[in-house]
Amino acid sequence: MSMSQRVDSRTRDLVDKSTRQILKASISPQDDIIAERSRATFDALQMCYALNGGKDKIQRRAQLVEALKRTSWGNKERRHFMTREEEYVEALRASFGIWEKMKQEKMSLEDGVTMRSLVDFPGGLELHIGMFIPSILSQGTPEQQQHWLPLCYDLSIIGTYAQTELGHGTFVRGLETTATYDKTTQEFVLHSPTLTSTKWWPGGLGKTATHAVVMARLFIDGKDYGPHAFVVQVRSLQDHLPLPGICVGDIGPKFGYGGVDNGYLAMDHLRISRESMLMRYSKVLPDGTYVPPPPSNAKASYATMVYVRADIVKNAGSVLAKAVTIATRYAAVRRQTAPSPGQPETQVLDYQNTSHTLLPLVAAAYAVHFMGETIMGMYKRFDKDRERGEFSSLPELHALSSGCKALCTWITADGIESCRRTCGGHGYSKLPGLPTLFQNYVQNVTWEGDNNVLCLQTARYLLKALVGVQRGQQATGSASYLNHAAAELHAKSAVQGASGWNAHALQSAMRHCATRLAASATAMLQSASRSAAGASSRAAGGLVFEGPAWNNSTVAMIKLTRAHCMAELHSNMLSSITALHSSGKVGGRELAVLQQLASLFALTHIEAHMGDYLEDGYFTGAQAASIRQRQNALLLELRPNAVALVDAFGIEDYVLNSALGRQDGDVYTALLDMAQGSPLNSSQEGPAWHTVLKPVMVKHSKM
Amino acid sequence: MSMSQRVDSRTRDLVDKSTRQILKASISPQDDIIAERSRATFDALQMCYALNGGKDKIQRRAQLVEALKRTSWGNKERRHFMTREEEYVEALRASFGIWEKMKQEKMSLEDGVTMRSLVDFPGGLELHIGMFIPSILSQGTPEQQQHWLPLCYDLSIIGTYAQTELGHGTFVRGLETTATYDKTTQEFVLHSPTLTSTKWWPGGLGKTATHAVVMARLFIDGKDYGPHAFVVQVRSLQDHLPLPGICVGDIGPKFGYGGVDNGYLAMDHLRISRESMLMRYSKVLPDGTYVPPPPSNAKASYATMVYVRADIVKNAGSVLAKAVTIATRYAAVRRQTAPSPGQPETQVLDYQNTSHTLLPLVAAAYAVHFMGETIMGMYKRFDKDRERGEFSSLPELHALSSGCKALCTWITADGIESCRRTCGGHGYSKLPGLPTLFQNYVQNVTWEGDNNVLCLQTARYLLKALVGVQRGQQATGSASYLNHAAAELHAKSAVQGASGWNAHALQSAMRHCATRLAASATAMLQSASRSAAGASSRAAGGLVFEGPAWNNSTVAMIKLTRAHCMAELHSNMLSSITALHSSGKVGGRELAVLQQLASLFALTHIEAHMGDYLEDGYFTGAQAASIRQRQNALLLELRPNAVALVDAFGIEDYVLNSALGRQDGDVYTALLDMAQGSPLNSSQEGPAWHTVLKPVMVKHSKM
């Protein structure tokens, strides 16, 4: 930026007098953020190590960041300015770059995963790594694995996973793509019989993948055996053109995820060999005999879903941590409105409505982080158990991971946008990174199980548990508080005064609320089920989990799951921070702040759903008011630690790539510097001058 | 899309057997939407005329749509696929196209406004039309108007309005750009003394505008007279290059609004003539004497803000109408999950959680629409009054428009995203239009007064009104319900059973709630004000509206404004629909549906904030439950009218430009057709094959 011109000294003197008056009022954002850090009551670095698995991991990340910055594909300077095509090409280059770097430097898989998260540029290889290879590993026979996996690992082929169709997502049994077995040739004929059967959404399918695991309804001798998995080659390995009988392409722009070429696929009577069906479990013999999968297979595929959902919960915590890091640092250095003339302007974080938005989201980022760790740990224990045929923890794990996937992705998606809005005008710019974070994140509420549908699954689990308890059975795991339902339904909170809202009182309140919502949802569904004509097929304890009775109760069911999972997030945070302290990973000062955060998390949830606590008289009006008092007091108690709490997430400037989230607080310089990269600035007169503006504006040029 | 290959008849027969089984289950979306329309209990076309100002207007819109479609700049086929530069250039072309068409065909201003909303492509001329010309009209002297306006009207110059700076948005008094008067030359020296004084955000400033109305702090003889408006030329009219002393450019990509070149501007000791200051009100005489504006000027600038906010409310209604049109039509044709094998799958709109999201948003779109009409009408009456110096309705209008701007933009911004999520996976595609609608809309919660700040202004008005009432004065206008505050605070709802929730009962409940929140916010601020040391400067009725006492009360204040404006939206909708019916614009069947919508709007708000109605005992727990019962019953009652209710908004397919929102329901064909336009599909092998994929994938090419 240059506008140099000669200015005479008289003009300079004249203006300097005005300038001095302006400068009196200004405080630099860098000074502000230094002051913020000095106010912290705990050791942010120790907290950072505790949250991130130790000092070694943080140091390794730092090394990798330095290495990545220096690569052409890891450099992020142009990331905010790319067209969709550039995003697609550059994201692939980045994926390939990581792949090559791992090979050349013989790096660990963990380093590879870390690099992917640091570069943070999803592209056409996502489903090759995340779904195609895992599908072959889990559903392929040893021969199939030997055939396909080496080709996958050296990128001779690139795969994707094609399940979703134009007309079917959630309801997998409704898929319309057919795979008809032809005994005479021992082939399957893959076909897309309707427009709505067109495969739609698979990542990498548009322009990258050469192969796909295609889910299709298996037909043998006119009989429908339901969805099965087939490996289908869609593009030539020589010229990358679609093979005959294949119609494939990109589905067009999306809210975010521009680097990924989500694709469509229609097949026209496409013949593939019998060996193309993944036959580790179900099989089709040459003569057309169908061999069904062993019963444990259903459980195994549940296990995969659980893993994916646990991973989404873990990811939700880290994405929300990014958003609150950006917004909190900016709110600490942004000053707006002087209380009276001559006074310094107020830091935006000192307005109650800002801290009332941001600090609970910081607390939520911690709560979701701990839940991610816990669910992933549960999954790993289960994974060991199942090697010896032990599946007993699966229903609990499935219910918890489904509900928490829904709740945590809602918290994060909505949280990013709330963070963005606290940044005021500058939050609307892409340079701070929050719009892109939101655009790339929000599909998490839909994919891998639509959140509402997942909530219904968890609610069903809870209702069955409660009906079991009512019949004298014992509820276990996260539902075990339902064992006390009978007494709980008549309980009242005994808390007196704002100071009474300790961790135990908050936890009791949240569990009471979940118990009551479970009881009323059960009663509602029992009543609706009775009146539903002829509904008995899947009745359990007088409950019909389908049809109009169920469809007209879903609001209460979703509400129940939210309340249940919120209580779980809170109690899990309490036990996680206690464990961190007992193991010496954090000291007493860190524990104290974490306990405040856990309380703020619970209080904020309760405050936002106060009606649920008042409706049955569990809370009095005075207790409701004291919840707000305690919450407001906590906001002030936590205020000095705000910046240190987001520092403790340890997210590098390289990862944030944000003009407002930078560690040093120099936000305005960053905005101005980054804006220079805007493609519109590549010429001084701009891209419309010669073609649009000049012909109209300069009249004599027309004469 | 073509994948033609020869298929032998045996294969065809084999596959046809599978296909027939698939086809049994499918229902076409076109049939679904026809069936939906036939279920309506009211006349959607009559409703459409009533909402849109009559049959003539709808017919004129249709004519304009046909004309626009045929122009190169009004055609929307490529709209979803543009790069930022293309968006900028094409949006300008569209603006110029409308301008020229109006001139050539001697069209009315109203036609021009209509065309702008139909083309719906904000670009670099927004602030020329919306701010530069109006500023000169309202703040320029007759001579200045004669000089500038003809140049504006024939686009010899293009202007913008530069107020916001990197460091200052909301707090206008804090602007840092200086305009120092130089008596000796009778010039102002415009200067950007700090990094944070860089003008930032003005639309069109980046690469389009040649001139800007610049807000700068006026200094004369070292004295600061605060912000004043100056016309500054920033670019040459010959070659469009920035003039000496000017640094100007594009601020980079934003969440949305890619067609607009929001810009930055820094000035280095830039001399402009004394006549460049807009001097209709304040003046600087040649000798440096400052002539302050007459007192009515402040009121006039309030009036401009009121107009802008009223316009935003009106716009909020039409944007939300678009979102619910898309989502409701799609939810009516999307089917997912068969209740049991062999049965048709359920329309997504028949899941309670979907209708519980969508139908209240349909209701909100109606409520916001009516509020937009009302506020605009109030503004127009005020505008007539002020010509004769009558400003008495301004405080009420200012408070109402501020709070409603905040509330209605929140409803719409959050509503678009909720609509998007009900569309499941396809909602994430840009082709249905909801992502872009959200991206282009959300800055409305921030600009023209940040919503939180506006809520505080309305809250201050309400608190002053309540303190006035407590002192025996009469509250007027929208605050007049506060006259009954003393009695209201002890009131209980007398409603029995779900059927008791008629319009009057709902309105009483909402006003009771707002009264109680006003009383508790007043008490809270009075108490905080007492303890705030030395705070007395602006105390009114023991209330200090600034400093820590105020900053630590903002959550309660914002909550109060929301409750107040919700009650206003509801009561305004009731009176608006009564008026429509009395004037014969709608019949009894239409009125009945509108009344149901008004009730649903109120019930949904109350249900979401139930704690506020239970805390003081106004509701019992049983009444809370009956609110939900009534709400659920209404969802079922309104369900058959869902599609007709969005049809009645009368939004053309051309305007929606949405694969899922189309009138004919043919959503899957549209998705597939529109996807063909994706730039990634311009070659079969895709843009990464030769440069990225082939070198790695095809091994022999490396040997």
From TrEMBL, chains A, B:
Annotated ranges, domain Acyl-CoA oxidase C-alpha1: 302-463
Residue ranges constituting the Acyl-CoA oxidase C-terminal domain according to the UniProt record: 508-697
Binding-site list for FAD: 164, 203
Residues that span the membrane, as ranges: none
Keyword field contains Oxidoreductase: yes
Predominant location: other
Single GO molecular function: ATP binding
Cofactors, names only: FAD
InterPro entries given in the database record: ACOX_C_alpha1 (IPR055060), Acyl-CoA_ox_N (IPR029320), Acyl-CoA_Oxase/DH_mid-dom_sf (IPR046373), Acyl-CoA_oxidase (IPR012258), Acyl-CoA_oxidase_C (IPR002655), AcylCo_DH-like_C (IPR036250), AcylCoA_DH/ox_N_sf (IPR037069), AcylCoA_DH/oxidase_NM_dom_sf (IPR009100)
Domain of life: Eukaryota
Pfam families assigned to the protein according to its UniProt record, in alphabetical order: ACOX, ACOX_C_alpha1, Acyl-CoA_ox_N
Gene Ontology biological process: fatty acid beta-oxidation using acyl-CoA oxidase; lipid homeostasis
Compartments in which it is found: Peroxisome
Full protein name: Acyl-coenzyme A oxidase
